[in-house]
Amino acid sequence: MSSKSKLISILVVLILIIVGLFYWQQHKKSGNDEIVIGISPPFAKPLQVAVNEAKKQGINVKIVEFSDWNTPNITLSHGDIDANYFQHQPFLTNAIKETGFKLKPVGVGVATHVGLYSKKYTTLDAIPDHARVVIPNDPVNQGRALLLLQQAKLVQLKDPNDHLSNLQSIANNPKQLNFIEVEGPQTARAVDDADLVFSYPLYLRLAKTIDPNKALLLDDETNKRYAILFVVRDDYENKHPEKAEKLKKFIEIYQTSPAVNQALNDDIGKNLWFAGWK
């Protein structure tokens, strides 16, 4: 090989190395700039629309799904994700109390109505004595379920306004209902077996067990207590100021994008959700 050919070969190799390093650095930078948000599966579709909208503005967001309601906070606390989006303020407050995690909300998402559902009975009056009633087993959502059962006049609570009521808080149970406690996401699948189930439109639509619009009773609460929150670690803005700004912009996109609004209507049901940030 001539000296000229050797020189050309060396230059080609150097160019390839430089190009390779450039793309590696770009990939590394992109990976570092990517915002990772942990969610529950029912929130995926509208959030993915927000991800697509954000990408048009140069904001890269990755969604990671968790099947339970404990792992998203554990993973966030360990620093493996940037934020999560699956819980409302009462749930977050209780989680912090139980675990000591240093977490905080940085944005508000949607709130959904909850309902009482049955495949066996078409009215609340038809619910028989000793009926099997499924409710969530976590303290916060169990309280929400009992408030709805009280609204249905199926139970009476010692404190009618206590949103943290539990089974021991029931003062009167005239039909002697038998309560079955399950993890919140599993309430949607219990509709096939139980007499009456407290559940959430998002999870029912995902499980495809019953039309979320066919509740025997929906809650009449439209305050923002149960709006789903974007949650981060307490030190997130200090440790990741640039990503924190991008997350703020992403939340704004989620709240204001017409495409996201339409996705929420399609996925949850137009009359089953309302904006928690308004």
TrEMBL record:
Pfam families xref list: Lipoprotein_9
A GO CC annotation given for this chain: membrane
Keyword Lipoprotein: yes
Transmembrane feature ranges: 7-24
Keyword Transcription attached: no
Keywords, alphabetical: Lipoprotein, Membrane, Palmitate, Signal, Transmembrane, Transmembrane helix
Localisation per UniProt entry: Membrane
SUPFAM superfamilies: Periplasmic binding protein-like II (SSF53850)
Membrane topology term: Lipid-anchor
Gene3D superfamilies linked to this entry: Periplasmic binding protein-like II
Similarity field: Belongs to the NlpA lipoprotein family.
Protein name (database record): Methionine transporter
Lineage of origin: Bacteria, Pseudomonadati, Pseudomonadota, Gammaproteobacteria, Moraxellales
